[in-house]
Design a protein that fits this description.
By secondary structure, the chain is mostly helical. 85% of the residues lie in helices and 0% in strands.
Length: 122
């Protein structure tokens, strides 16, 4: 069951994993370096692995949630970070931040959708 407590946890953990634990070099290089992007997504997914293990005592759910989170986060950031870089390079910060906001909505949708999917898997 998706409760308000779970939604708040998803938002807070996502913020910590996606922003607070992202290094400066990952943030500035992930748009041009697959290595930097993989480091960011690896750290992000590692945090979600630990969270998923607490939520479900089922290795299949943990692997499903973490694996799809890794894949979706990588694909989303691969695309959005490159678009943001183009806007920021032109000093078009408004549209760059619009893309960052959209990136965050995609991450929230993915996390909430996967939580619902995994929580309902028998």
């Amino acid at each position: 069951m998706l409760s308000i407590k779970v939604i708040i946890l998803i938002l807070v953990i996502h913020f910590l994993a996606d922003f607070a634990l992202q290094t400066h070099s990952q943030a500035t290089q992930k748009s041009t370096s697959i290595k930097a992007l993989l480091k960011h997504v690896g750290t992000y997914s590692g945090i979600w692995f630990l969270v998923a293990w607490v939520w479900w005592d089922d290795p299949m759910k943990v692997v499903l949630f973490t694996g799809f989170t890794f894949g979706f986060h990588f694909l989303t950031d691969y695309i959005t970070s490159r678009i943001v870089k183009k806007f920021f390079d032109k000093e078009d910060y408004h549209n760059g931040f619009v893309v960052i906001g959209f990136d965050q909505v995609l991450h929230y949708m993915q996390l909430i959708g996967l939580y619902i999917l995994c929580d309902g898997v028998v």
